[in-house]
Each structure stands twice: as structure tokens, then as C-alpha cells.
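Example 3.2
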Amino acid sequence: MVVEIIRYNIATGQESSFLEAYEKAQTHLIASPHCLAYWLNRCVKDRARFVLTIHWDSAEGHTRGFRNSEHFPPFYALVAPYFAQIEEMEHYEPTDIEWSR
């Protein structure tokens, strides 16, 4: 499994349309067998900042499986207008350091 982190800084006034786009786009993530989970979080202090965390089965499952599937074009069409506002988009590997209650 890999974790994709995407950090957005959305232009003032576009926050609602950004959330609406991901509300619609999530159906395409759910449809992909390579997507295991995702979370879209909004900053409490700066409401224009968002972090999207996606768990993929593998980096290849994301970059080849999802991006070459029928689910990617409609997903991309919805979220592409916000790509210029991405501050980071990277894959990360989990470590053994974790805990939850």
C-alpha cells in the first residue's frame, strides 16, 4: 500500500466549488479497485487549505491502474481545475510508527 498526499491552497471564493467537485469525483475513486480509502481534510486555521489523503493498493495501481481506467477521465475532468493550486502531490510509504485509539 502507498499513501498519496495532495495539499491544496484553494483560491478565495472557490472553496465551495472545490468541495462540490470532490463530492462528485469521489464516486470514481470508490469505483476503482486500486483505491482503498481516502480522506479530504480542511484546515481549521486557514479554511482555504485542504489535504487529500488517498490509500492506494500500490503506486502502480494508482499511476497505471487508476489513471489508465475508465474511471480516471471523469475524475480528472472534475478536479483538474484545481491542479494549479496544488502545493504537494506525492506518494508515501507507511512506516511501522503508528497508533490509534
